Amino acid sequence: MSRLPSGSEASLEPLRYALRRGADKEASRLAEDARAQSDAILSTARAEADEIRKTAEQQGREAARTEASGRSARIRRQARRTVLAQQEALRAELIQQVQQQAQELRSDPRYPRLLRILTERADSILGPMASVTESYKGGVTATAGSRHLDFSLPALAAQALENRAGEVHRLWDVE
Questions:
Q1: Residue 112's closest CA among 84, 132, 140, 143?
Q2: Which of 7, 42, 104, 114 is the most buried (most CB within 10 A)?
Q3: Could you give the strand order of the β-sheet that contains 139-144, starting from the edge strand earlier in sequence?
Q4: Are 122 and 149 in contact (CB under 8 A)?
């Protein structure tokens, strides 16, 4: 793998900006899709909860107060399990999409430049004597003594998801 001469860091800034901008746009689009799906799920759950509540009220009038309370609690737990299961399904889909898009970077014409940038970053962190190799997963890994860096595409995608975890979590807090 060839290394760029020193001082070329500034010339790579437009590429970094374009990659960061593209990633931000894609993350925003994915967040918007997840938000729309979350809204639909919450709307359906609310409608189901309203229907369940009406049924519980009717049964409460006919049955003892303790029976109605027990039934209502079970229904709320089931509704919560349904919402949580849907949230987890959406989260898993988001993870799968981000990982797939990270792997698709390997066929992007800018991928060789990305490898050079990652190599330079590894060198700047671990030093120029670091052993930097291209990962079979895409991206690079680097070692220097007992220190190890994983800049593979799956690891970078996972880090991007972790960095956006709060944003994804806020999708579920819509009330």
A1: 140
A2: 114
A3: 131-134, 139-144, 147-152
A4: yes
Extended strands (E) in the chain: 131-134, 139-144, 147-152
CA-wise closest residue to 157 among 88, 96, 75: 96
Structure token pair of residue 59: 């049964």
Decide: 175 and 35 in contact? Cβ < 8 Å.
no
* Residue range 116-148, pLDDT digits in tens: 999 999 999 999 899 999 999 999 999 999 999
Which residues, other chains included, contact 119 with Cβ-Cβ below 8 Å and sequence gap of 6+?
1, 3, 132, 140, 142
| pTM: predicted TM-score of the whole model, two decimal places | 0.52
Dist CA 118 CA 150 (whole Å): 10
Q: Let me know: does 38 contact 88? Beta carbons within 8 Å.
A: no
Residue type, 151: F
Residues 121, 170: Cα–Cα separation, whole Å? 32
Separation of alpha carbons 17 and 2, rounded Å: 22
